[in-house]
Amino acid sequence: MAGLDWPMPDCTTLCRRQARITVQIPFRCSGHPLNLLIDGTGIRFRGDGEWLACKHGATRRREWRKVHLAIYTTTGDIRAVEFTSNRQSSTPAVPRARTEIEKLDKRIVAVETGLAVVMI
To answer: Which of 51, 46, 86 is nearest to 68 (CA)?
Structure first.
């Protein structure tokens, strides 16, 4: 677009390189008590698209997974991620996220899910 003669990798090269990339998110320890927010959202990974299913009807069963994110409320940093089946709520993910985060930081004060706030 800019008229530059730079080499551009194709899709196969990008996918092959992306498979080997490892990203380390550094942990930043803060000096105050931490409030943790845990919430989940659904991700469809198999099945028809919305438009196709609406127009022609669903041809096969749609499959979903839930992603539960543990986020510090003050900084917005994501400290834990967990994938579960679509039938599981965010509440069972609280103890697992808590133990994972406590390996790094011992000062969690409260954990909030969509259902309740759990004071620790």
So the answer is: 86
DSSP single-letter state for residue 114 = S
- Inter-CA distances, 3 with 6, 7, 10, 11, Å: 9, 12, 18, 21
pTM (whole model) above 0.70: no
Q: Is 84 exposed, middle or buried (0-12, 13-18, 19+ CB in 10 A)?
A: middle
Domain residue ranges of the chain, discontinuous segments joined by +: 33-119
Does the pLDDT at position 113 exceed 70? Answer: no
Q: Where are the beta strands (DSSP E) in the chain?
A: 34-46, 63-72, 78-85, 108-112, 117-119
